[in-house]
Protein backbone atom coordinates (compact mmCIF):
# COMPACT_ATOMS: atom_id res chain seq x y z
CA UNK A 1 0.00 0.00 0.00
CA UNK A 2 1.23 3.48 -0.86
CA UNK A 3 0.92 5.74 2.20
CA UNK A 4 1.39 9.46 1.56
CA UNK A 5 1.35 12.29 4.08
CA UNK A 6 1.68 15.82 2.75
CA UNK A 7 2.18 18.73 5.14
CA UNK A 8 0.13 17.06 7.88
CA UNK A 9 -0.57 19.19 10.93
CA UNK A 10 -2.87 18.28 13.82
CA UNK A 11 -3.90 19.86 17.13
CA UNK A 12 -5.67 18.60 20.24
CA UNK A 13 -7.43 21.78 21.26
CA UNK A 14 -4.73 24.43 21.39
CA UNK A 15 -1.89 21.90 21.63
CA UNK A 16 0.11 21.17 18.49
CA UNK A 17 0.71 17.42 18.24
CA UNK A 18 1.95 17.08 14.65
CA UNK A 19 3.60 19.78 12.59
CA UNK A 20 3.90 19.66 8.78
CA UNK A 21 4.73 15.97 8.50
CA UNK A 22 5.50 14.79 4.98
CA UNK A 23 6.40 11.19 4.12
CA UNK A 24 5.84 8.54 1.47
CA UNK A 25 5.77 4.99 2.84
CA UNK A 26 5.78 1.80 0.79
CA UNK A 27 7.91 -0.59 2.86
CA UNK A 28 6.62 -3.86 4.32
CA UNK A 29 7.46 -3.12 7.97
CA UNK A 30 7.75 0.43 9.27
CA UNK A 31 8.56 1.31 12.88
CA UNK A 32 7.56 4.52 14.64
CA UNK A 33 9.34 5.68 17.81
CA UNK A 34 9.52 8.77 19.98
CA UNK A 35 9.08 10.01 23.52
CA UNK A 36 5.66 10.20 25.16
CA UNK A 37 3.76 13.12 23.66
CA UNK A 38 5.98 13.30 20.58
CA UNK A 39 3.11 12.74 18.14
CA UNK A 40 3.70 9.12 17.16
CA UNK A 41 0.30 7.79 18.31
CA UNK A 42 -1.45 10.67 16.57
CA UNK A 43 0.47 9.74 13.43
CA UNK A 44 -0.78 6.15 13.74
CA UNK A 45 -4.41 7.20 14.16
CA UNK A 46 -4.21 9.36 11.05
CA UNK A 47 -3.46 6.30 8.93
CA UNK A 48 -6.93 4.76 9.21
CA UNK A 49 -9.02 7.88 9.62
CA UNK A 50 -9.50 7.67 13.38
CA UNK A 51 -8.19 11.22 13.19
CA UNK A 52 -8.08 13.56 10.20
CA UNK A 53 -5.46 16.30 9.87
CA UNK A 54 -6.22 19.95 10.55
CA UNK A 55 -4.03 20.78 7.56
CA UNK A 56 -2.42 18.71 4.84
CA UNK A 57 -3.57 15.31 3.64
CA UNK A 58 -3.19 11.59 4.33
CA UNK A 59 -3.84 9.19 1.45
CA UNK A 60 -3.57 5.43 1.13
CA UNK A 61 -3.45 4.13 -2.43
CA UNK A 62 -5.03 7.44 -3.42
CA UNK A 63 -7.87 7.24 -0.89
CA UNK A 64 -8.06 10.36 1.28
CA UNK A 65 -8.73 9.73 4.97
CA UNK A 66 -10.86 12.87 5.18
CA UNK A 67 -13.16 11.78 2.33
CA UNK A 68 -12.85 8.00 2.06
CA UNK A 69 -12.72 6.87 5.69
CA UNK A 70 -15.10 3.92 5.22
CA UNK A 71 -13.14 2.50 2.29
CA UNK A 72 -9.87 2.98 4.16
CA UNK A 73 -11.09 1.19 7.28
CA UNK A 74 -11.97 -1.82 5.15
CA UNK A 75 -8.30 -2.03 4.19
CA UNK A 76 -6.52 -0.82 7.33
CA UNK A 77 -6.62 -2.73 10.61
CA UNK A 78 -5.77 -1.00 13.90
CA UNK A 79 -4.69 -2.48 17.25
CA UNK A 80 -4.68 -0.34 20.38
CA UNK A 81 -2.30 -0.46 23.34
CA UNK A 82 -5.02 -1.73 25.68
CA UNK A 83 -6.90 -4.70 24.15
CA UNK A 84 -9.86 -4.09 26.47
CA UNK A 85 -10.51 -0.96 24.40
CA UNK A 86 -11.37 -3.06 21.36
CA UNK A 87 -12.71 -6.37 22.71
CA UNK A 88 -16.44 -5.89 22.36
CA UNK A 89 -18.10 -9.32 22.42
CA UNK A 90 -18.66 -11.70 25.37
CA UNK A 91 -16.67 -14.71 24.15
CA UNK A 92 -13.41 -15.15 22.27
CA UNK A 93 -14.98 -16.68 19.15
CA UNK A 94 -17.75 -14.07 19.06
CA UNK A 95 -15.20 -11.27 19.23
CA UNK A 96 -13.23 -12.67 16.30
CA UNK A 97 -16.46 -13.10 14.33
CA UNK A 98 -17.61 -9.55 15.07
CA UNK A 99 -15.31 -7.94 12.51
CA UNK A 100 -16.58 -10.25 9.78
CA UNK A 101 -20.15 -9.01 10.02
CA UNK A 102 -19.58 -6.14 7.63
CA UNK A 103 -18.22 -8.56 5.02
CA UNK A 104 -21.58 -10.38 4.92
CA UNK A 105 -19.99 -13.78 4.42
CA UNK A 106 -21.98 -17.03 4.35
CA UNK A 107 -22.21 -18.46 7.85
CA UNK A 108 -20.15 -21.52 6.99
CA UNK A 109 -17.32 -19.38 5.63
CA UNK A 110 -17.48 -17.10 8.64
CA UNK A 111 -17.23 -20.05 11.04
CA UNK A 112 -14.28 -21.47 9.11
CA UNK A 113 -12.45 -18.13 9.13
CA UNK A 114 -12.95 -17.81 12.88
CA UNK A 115 -11.82 -21.40 13.50
CA UNK A 116 -8.68 -20.94 11.38
CA UNK A 117 -7.85 -17.57 12.95
CA UNK A 118 -8.13 -18.94 16.49
CA UNK A 119 -5.96 -21.92 15.56
CA UNK A 120 -3.24 -19.67 14.15
CA UNK A 121 -3.26 -17.59 17.33
CA UNK A 122 -3.21 -20.60 19.64
CA UNK A 123 -6.59 -19.61 21.09
CA UNK A 124 -8.73 -22.51 19.88
CA UNK A 125 -9.25 -23.98 23.34
CA UNK A 126 -10.48 -20.59 24.56
CA UNK A 127 -13.09 -20.12 21.82
CA UNK A 128 -16.05 -20.16 24.23
CA UNK A 129 -14.30 -18.48 27.16
CA UNK A 130 -15.26 -14.98 28.36
CA UNK A 131 -13.00 -12.66 26.39
CA UNK A 132 -12.37 -10.21 29.23
CA UNK A 133 -11.22 -12.98 31.58
CA UNK A 134 -8.25 -13.92 29.42
CA UNK A 135 -4.72 -13.06 30.52
CA UNK A 136 -3.20 -9.83 29.27
CA UNK A 137 -1.16 -11.61 26.59
CA UNK A 138 -4.14 -13.64 25.44
CA UNK A 139 -6.27 -10.50 25.22
CA UNK A 140 -3.72 -8.80 23.01
CA UNK A 141 -3.54 -11.89 20.80
CA UNK A 142 -7.34 -11.87 20.62
CA UNK A 143 -7.42 -8.18 19.68
CA UNK A 144 -4.83 -8.80 16.98
CA UNK A 145 -6.65 -11.90 15.72
CA UNK A 146 -9.96 -10.03 15.55
CA UNK A 147 -8.32 -7.51 13.24
CA UNK A 148 -6.37 -9.98 11.11
CA UNK A 149 -9.41 -12.17 10.44
CA UNK A 150 -10.76 -9.35 8.24
CA UNK A 151 -7.61 -9.65 6.07
CA UNK A 152 -6.56 -5.98 6.00
CA UNK A 153 -3.89 -4.76 3.58
CA UNK A 154 -2.23 -2.63 6.26
CA UNK A 155 -2.00 -3.30 9.99
CA UNK A 156 -1.29 -0.39 12.35
CA UNK A 157 -0.27 -1.31 15.91
CA UNK A 158 -0.06 1.37 18.58
CA UNK A 159 2.32 0.13 21.30
CA UNK A 160 0.78 -3.38 21.40
CA UNK A 161 3.26 -4.76 23.94
CA UNK A 162 3.33 -1.93 26.50
CA UNK A 163 1.12 -3.79 28.98
CA UNK A 164 2.72 -7.21 28.44
CA UNK A 165 5.45 -9.21 30.14
CA UNK A 166 8.51 -10.40 28.21
CA UNK A 167 7.08 -13.77 27.19
CA UNK A 168 3.90 -12.29 25.77
CA UNK A 169 5.84 -9.49 24.13
CA UNK A 170 7.81 -12.13 22.28
CA UNK A 171 4.59 -13.90 21.27
CA UNK A 172 3.22 -10.73 19.71
CA UNK A 173 6.57 -9.98 18.06
CA UNK A 174 6.61 -13.48 16.54
CA UNK A 175 3.14 -12.97 15.08
CA UNK A 176 4.04 -9.58 13.61
CA UNK A 177 7.26 -10.95 12.13
CA UNK A 178 5.41 -13.50 9.99
CA UNK A 179 2.54 -11.30 8.77
CA UNK A 180 2.16 -10.88 5.01
CA UNK A 181 0.44 -7.54 5.58
CA UNK A 182 2.22 -4.22 5.49
CA UNK A 183 2.80 -3.20 9.13
CA UNK A 184 3.22 0.16 10.87
CA UNK A 185 4.30 -0.47 14.46
CA UNK A 186 4.47 2.25 17.12
CA UNK A 187 6.62 1.09 20.02
CA UNK A 188 8.86 2.06 22.93
CA UNK A 189 10.43 -1.40 22.74
CA UNK A 190 13.28 -0.85 20.31
CA UNK A 191 14.06 -4.57 20.13
CA UNK A 192 10.76 -5.11 18.31
CA UNK A 193 12.11 -3.15 15.35
CA UNK A 194 14.90 -5.58 14.54
CA UNK A 195 14.59 -6.55 10.89
CA UNK A 196 12.22 -3.71 10.04
CA UNK A 197 12.67 -1.90 6.74
CA UNK A 198 12.36 1.69 7.96
CA UNK A 199 11.95 3.61 11.21
CA UNK A 200 10.44 7.06 11.75
CA UNK A 201 11.40 9.11 14.81
CA UNK A 202 9.06 11.78 16.16
CA UNK A 203 10.05 14.54 18.56
CA UNK A 204 7.98 17.47 19.78
CA UNK A 205 5.32 17.04 17.05
CA UNK A 206 7.85 16.74 14.23
CA UNK A 207 9.17 13.89 12.13
CA UNK A 208 12.88 14.35 12.77
CA UNK A 209 14.48 11.11 11.56
CA UNK A 210 13.48 8.80 8.72
CA UNK A 211 16.07 6.07 8.18
CA UNK A 212 16.99 2.40 8.38
CA UNK A 213 16.46 0.91 11.87
CA UNK A 214 20.05 0.98 13.10
CA UNK A 215 20.60 4.60 12.11
CA UNK A 216 17.18 5.75 13.32
CA UNK A 217 17.53 4.04 16.71
CA UNK A 218 21.05 5.38 17.21
CA UNK A 219 19.88 8.91 16.48
CA UNK A 220 16.84 8.44 18.72
CA UNK A 221 19.01 7.32 21.63
CA UNK A 222 21.19 10.39 21.10
CA UNK A 223 18.13 12.60 20.98
CA UNK A 224 16.87 11.21 24.28
CA UNK A 225 20.22 11.88 25.97
CA UNK A 226 20.00 14.80 28.36
CA UNK A 227 21.01 18.02 26.63
CA UNK A 228 20.97 16.55 23.13
CA UNK A 229 20.43 19.15 20.43
CA UNK A 230 17.02 18.89 18.76
CA UNK A 231 17.33 17.96 15.07
CA UNK A 232 15.59 19.83 12.33
CA UNK A 233 12.42 18.36 10.85
CA UNK A 234 12.93 15.89 8.02
CA UNK A 235 12.51 17.76 4.71
Task: Give me some keywords for this one.
six-stranded mixed sheet; 31% helix; 235 residues; Rossmann fold; alpha/beta
Can you describe what's shown?
The protein has 235 residues and is an alpha/beta fold. It has helices at 40-46, 69-75, 92-98, 107-121, 136-148, 166-177, 213-224, and strands at residues 3-12, 15-25, 29-34, 55-60, 63-64, 76-79, 154-158, 182-186, 198-203, 206-211. The protein has one domain (3-86, 144-224): Rossmann fold (3-Layer(aba) Sandwich), CATH 3.40.50.300. It has 7 helices and 10 strands. The strands form 2 sheets. A 6-stranded mixed beta sheet has the order 6-7-8-3-9-10, sandwiched between helices. A 4-stranded antiparallel beta sheet has the order 2-1-4-5, with helices on one face. GO terms for molecular function: ATP binding. InterPro entries: AAA+_ATPase, ABC_transporter-like_ATP-bd, ABC_transpr_CbiO/EcfA_su, ECF_ABC_transporter_ATP-bd, P-loop_NTPase.
Q: What multimeric state do the chains show? A: single chain
The count of domains is 1
Tally the helices. 7
Low-pLDDT parts are none
Radius of gyration: 18 Å
- The CATH class turns out to be Alpha Beta
Q: Tell me about the largest β-sheet.
A: 6 strands, mixed
Hey, roughly how much beta strand do the residues contain? 25-35%
What would you give as the CATH superfamily? P-loop containing nucleotide triphosphate hydrolases
- Which strand order spans the largest sheet, edge to edge or round the barrel? 6-7-8-3-9-10
Structural class: alpha/beta
CATH topology heading: Rossmann fold
Question: What is the CA-CA span between the terminal residues?
Answer: 22 Å
Mean pLDDT across all amino acids: 93
Shape: globular
**DSSP strand tally:** 10
- Helicity, as a percent range: 25-40%
CATH architecture: 3-Layer(aba) Sandwich
Give the ordered list of helices and strands.
EEEHEEHEHHHEHEEEH
